[in-house]
Amino acid sequence: MSRGILAEKASPASDRRRFQRAVGALWELGIVALGPIRADAARSHEILRDHVARNFPGGTGSYLFWTAADERAFGRKGMLAGTLTIHCSGREVADAAVSVFQDHGVDAALPPAPDTVLVFPPAIGPRGS
What is the pTM of this model? Predict the structure, then answer.
């Protein structure tokens, strides 16, 4: 075998890539996950509540989103440089989101504010994909 092949190492996934994978997993669980949304959080809740009810009438009404302002937490290379706030339709969605984000290598926690999740930059630097 070539030494080059053995020495070659896959580069770690960016924070954005891990976040996107987690968002895909949330969709698979039946949680509509959208962002960045340009409206403020209160208006976005109204819009998504109606959108989910209209487009998924047999569903649970579960959704989450992040705003365009929060999207700025991602740097140009996809690394998270600040805290990203995720707004959720309810506590159950927030609980599920934290679990899914953490399962995908994204640091996330429930803050004191109701129905939100905070996504943090990794404490120990980039992780593998």
Answer: 0.84
